[in-house]
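Hi, here's the filled form for the chain we discussed.

Project: internal
Contact: R.S.
Residues: 479
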Amino acid sequence: MQKTETNRWLVLVIVCLAQFMVILDATIVNIALPSIQHGLSFSDADLQWVINAYTLVFGGFLLLGGRAADLLGRKRLFVAGVALFSLASLLNGLAQSSSMLIAGRALQGLGGALVSPAALSILMTSFPGNEERTKALGVWSAIVAGGAAAGLLLGGVLTDLLSWEWIFFVNVPVGAVAVAAALRFVPESRDETAHRSFDVAGATTVTSGLVVLVYGIVKAQEYGWGSTRTLGTLALSALLLTAFVAIERRSAAPLVRLSMFRKRALTAANVAMMLVASGMFSMFFFASLYVQEVLGYSPLKAGLAFMPVTAGMIVGAGVAQTAIRRFGPRGVGVVGVSLAALGMLWLTGLPVHGHYVSDLLVGLLPMSVGMGLTFVPVTLLATAGVAPEDSGLASGLLNTSQQVGGALGLAILSTLAANHATSALADGASRPAALLAGWQVGFTGGAIVLILAALTLVLALRRRDLEHVDVDAAVPVAA
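And the returned structure, exactly as it came back:
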């Protein structure tokens, strides 16, 4: 009996190690963005592809990765995902051009889409008892929060002391250890009752449609919004996304069962999450550039500057768990998003000769606490009243909404920011002043989408939509 217990917790360590690597990558790259831009000659408009190439593929294939793990074997997909993620990390570190890095980031996203759902499924099947599962999920949640914080600091250390390439190289030995340990200690499992088919066409069309959409938005600055190229690209995106909907309606085992969106709470929560992620991704993107390009921080100092953001999110999430029982998920969610919007609005006034505490931190703190207050109630709303057999799909949809919303928001806002910066340069502004003028437009757009998220929670949810929300439910942290 003791051997079983030891093996079970060892399995938890292995899957958390891999998840730590995936989460680490989400923040470690942000700190290195200015160094990557200078090293590979990214334009201001194209720099966002370092984030979005990963995010779009990760979000687009996340649900397919979860289904593949259930059918083909969770251990098999976990090992394949970690190996692919590690290989892509190596290629990224060796990248000699912007296009090579973007391709490697997309491959990393595919690896992450295999790792995260397989790792969580292995955890859930390894701990069938409620009490032990709760403890295991607590460790998982701590790893997610710790990975995000460690990424900010480690990104600064590696970029400062070595070079930006090492933020990718560091994944290779970690991935090798995770693969070797999984092959030796993680048991294989699969869902023998699931419909044995894959909606590859659905995953491919939705991911391709989103990538083409983002490409069209970004290149609109170069080609013009009314140009044949831009309109043709946007039309192709619409065609691919329409094909996705048609495929889902006819598939025997769809990637996304469209009837799920008849649940008003689920739909409102996913729309709100898309908007919230748009604001959050853009905040990290623009603020990371601001502290290094305008304030002149080193990568290490920039990483330390964002540590309070992680702390604020943890504090907000802790307060939300208690506040929801008294004020309900909608009330807490609205307060959280509104607080984040106020922080974003403050950031629209960042000056060229700014100061960290009085100018930047004053906006980052309410933004981070507000995000923490928001994620817990939105997750509860997205899974409320969902049948047990659909809980995995509901959680996957929310994670996908977060990734897709962040990618689309970043594409739109970074393009608007680049356009504004280009105009400011043409009018004779210095480069720091022009960049800041563009980022202020981005922060303004981020505040607007956060306000729209708050309005979505207020206007789209009715009292009866909240009746099935279990305010005492344990909320798993999004992957």
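Let me know if anything looks off before we file it.
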